[in-house]
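Technical annex, item 7. During the second reporting period the consortium partners agreed on a shared format for inverse folding records so that results from different sites could be compared directly. Each record opens with the tokenized structure and is followed by the designed sequence. A conforming record, contributed by the partner at site C, is shown below for reference.
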């Protein structure tokens, strides 16, 4: 699986230090650094959490949390977009040996990520634009977005530069089958995913 190589950094980390201070002062908030900018997101609401759990089930049923891969929530993904950049996807499918790819600040090299998934909240523009570029540059093979504001499920594949060559939005009523390159065939019901995530996200 191809991915961007990441070198272990050695220099001072002022942005990471500030991000960690923000996390300490705001428990439950997600703090990320993308493109040299600190992004702070509020804690997820109940429907966001329910949707995330429901979305895990088809991956688990496909046997993707086992000896070859792990399904994990909220672990850091070290990004090649800046000296201190990292993101924390809602859900990630990673190689089982992902802990061997630790970089720093509880973040892991993108080489071990097979898929990332985000359920949008009030920060939907971050998930739909900023993270598309960041995950593409990190060469994450599959990026799935549950877009609660526009009621779509987006599947992005084939990263190239700061974008994905394939970006398909799916509407309620569709069943989306993800590429078996993630390790198994996984089908997502768009209606069920959006119904579980229903909320007024503004």
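Designed sequence (site C submission):
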């Amino acid at each position: 699986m191809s991915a961007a190589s990441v070198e272990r950094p050695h220099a001072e980390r002022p942005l990471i230090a500030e991000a960690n201070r923000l996390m300490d002062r705001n428990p439950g908030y997600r703090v990320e650094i993308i493109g040299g900018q600190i992004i702070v997101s509020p804690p997820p609401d109940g429907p966001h959490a329910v949707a995330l759990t429901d979305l895990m089930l088809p991956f688990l049923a496909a046997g993707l949390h086992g000896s070859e891969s792990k399904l994990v929530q909220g672990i850091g993904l070290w990004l090649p977009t800046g000296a201190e950049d990292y993101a924390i996807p809602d859900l990630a499918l990673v190689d089982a040996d992902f802990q061997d790819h630790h970089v720093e600040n509880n973040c892991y090299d993108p080489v071990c990520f097979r898929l990332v998934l985000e359920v949008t909240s009030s920060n939907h523009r971050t998930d739909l634009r900023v993270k598309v570029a960041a995950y593409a540059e990190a060469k994450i093979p599959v990026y799935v977005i549950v877009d609660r504001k526009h009621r779509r499920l987006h599947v992005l594949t084939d990263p190239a530069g700061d974008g994905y060559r394939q970006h398909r939005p799916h509407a309620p009523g569709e069943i989306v089958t993800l590429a078996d390159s993630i390790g198994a065939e996984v089908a997502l019901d768009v209606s069920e995913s959006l119904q579980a995530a229903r909320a007024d996200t503004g």
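The longest strand covers residues 152-160. The chain is about 25% helix and 35% strand. All partners now use this format for quarterly exchanges.
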